What we know:
heterodimer; A: alpha+beta; two-stranded parallel sheet; two-stranded antiparallel sheet; B: mainly alpha; two-stranded antiparallel ribbon; 26 helices; 4 strands; 69% helix; 4% strand
Amino acid sequence: MVFQQGALFEWLTVAENVNFGLRMKEEDAVQTQKKVDEWLDIVGLKGFGNTPTYQLSGGMQQRVALARCLINDPDLILMDEPLGALDALTREKMQSLVLKIWKETGKTIILITHSVEEALLLGEKVYVMAPRPGRIHKEYKLPFASMGLNGDLREIKNNKEFVSKREEILSMIWDMEEEIMGKDN
Amino acid sequence: MITAFLTFVFFFAIVGCVLYGRKLIKTEKVDAVFGNPERAQGGIHWVIVGSSFLLLVWLYYSWDIAKSFFPRSANELCQVGKVNESLLSLKYLFPIEERQLKSTSVIETETENLNKIIIEIEESEEVKSQDKNKLLNFVSQTKNTIPLLTNEKLLNNETKEQIKIINKKIINLTENFRKKDYPNESAEQEIERIEAAKEEGSWKASSTSIENTIEIPSIPKTKRGLKFQAAAEELNLISDEFFELRNHNSQYTSALEKLKKEIKDFRTNLGSSEEISSSFAKDILKIARRIEYASIFPPNTLKDMQLSIINFDKAQKKEQGTLRWVDILLFPSGTIISSGPSCSEQGSGRWLPKPSDTINKFTLMLNPNVGYKQIPLIWYEMMDVSKIIGFLIPDWFADILPGEYPVHNEQGEVKPNFKSKVLSFVTGDFNLFKIPIPTGHIWDSFLRVFLGLVAGIIVGVPLGLFMGLNRFAKGFFDPLIELYRPVPPLAWAPLVISVLGIDNLGKVFLLFMVSLSIMIISARAGASGTQLSKIHAAHSLGASKWQILRHVIFPNSLPEILTGIRVATGMCWGTLVAAEFLAGTTGVGFVENVAKKYFQYEVIWITIFIMGMLGLLFDITIRKIIDKTIPWRGKG
């Protein structure tokens, strides 16, 4: 699981956070150390192993959280608004990172987000949810994630199809909002 | 000498820094508006003013400035005090500092008392009516004795003469006192006096003994002092002579004798069931006796004497000269008074010890051979390691071994066997090498706080964490803790101390109670305040219950726990000192309590200082530990 706020353990260093799961399973320390280095490399935090986590920026903390989760080789990764609290630039970088990890590990990732654009960019399948009661409103299958694996994310955002899909989903959400809250003025 | 120098240093430091501060205000450009905390930054010069002012106030109100600039003033003021003491016994007879003439006020109060008794007798239901009449007759007889004393015509000529002689003596003394060479001391006497004065020492607290609290030498060191002392002695003789004088003329004496006899007869004739009548009669007799000894004189008889006493008072005030100004200016809120053979400081100079005296006493107390009550403040003693082993290993360890302890044989010898050897090992009854162990009042106090605190932490933290996580634990222990926690710890002290003893056990247990509740509450708050997302994260990473407790909840509650320890230390320290007041034979609080009993103000201030410093030391240590162990606090 990856959370909105990282949920890192402040009393541990970056490396100790990452190897937390393996340590709890009492796996071989040398082996674990190797894996930690590997994963820190993948998420771009090489050399930060001994840094206390409270000295990291928001994006770096999220990357530690990602590594901490992935090092356990889980079958399924649940990301609960992992990029919500980041600034725009870091967010874009992290989006590429998620895609990269998805490509390299081939894991199933369930990612929850409030950003329609992010959903379109990263999702193979997008479920639009409706509130009260919470339910799946509509399901989309999208090609953009696979495109993003090789291409530039910013180009994809300007893709005509991408723009039209985005507008479609946005207007759908607005309609839902009006249904519930009543139309403004 | 040092004090005089310091006085100037502090004075000029204050003046200089105030001037600097004024200048700074005029020249400095401040952008900060009122309310901006930047305006409170800096200002070392005001710190200097503050501390110099404080020290100057200490020097001034402890009369150390007076002592360093006028070292003989206390001795001279002591002689003045002697005069005032002897003068007071004469003065209080007259409306000089009192409102009324002594005779007037005695007559007033005793008449009032007699009127009260009349009402009581009349209202009493247990006194027989014939007895009532008799008792009322006694009262009126007593009342009638007063005019016999206040009638000038009845005053004996002899008494008149004596009053005149006493008056003359006072006038003579006043005249002599104004003379320069009074009291005509011979050269030999002078040498003798100065020798004696030297031997008596100077004005300061003893720096060789802790118990000695006499600070003011009473033998006059100066000519001026001698003058006052001589006058005081002469005044004493005069007032003794006056108080032997009684205005008992023959008519009064016979009236009083008659009354006494009648009351005596009345009381002997009373039955055992009439105690109330008897006690009324006794009360009346008491009043009659009080009137007898009150030296009541007719009005105007003592007029001349009053005048001459006032004259002498004026003369002695004038003779004080500069000493009077020293007294007013440099002995604030009090002065030196004489009572009986010795003089003492009365006022702030008494309870606020002089810095120099305090430092001397402190140095003396730090000497391990002196200490306080034969126990050093803090020192070390050599202790055999075997004693520590004997303390740590429980004695029953030997009891549970198989076999029996040795029995003496027919020759009356006891041969040790294996079991008895083990016993002597676990009781520490053998010799190993010696190591130094701290000891003394300060160490004892420290150790009690430390043990109480550690016990509280060891029990409180796990229990608190458990209570924060488990419904049963919370429900089960909550009533217990919430019942004993709001009780002030000192309210428990008498009970705990009387059950567990006045030694360390009782006090440590009391402190354990104090720290336990604080530690439980803080650990509980820490445990229940753990972010759910961290626990979820740990769960999803595959940690077990115990691992979550050990690796997530415990470190996460560390800030709360450490803050709790800090609070508990402060509370324990406060409680300990008060508990040591109650009972005990060692500890800083004990020292202060004993010092209080003997008015050793220096020692009291020293203990206050020690307690402040130790409290500060504890707090700084724990703050350092907090900074080291939880650097992430406030940075999440």
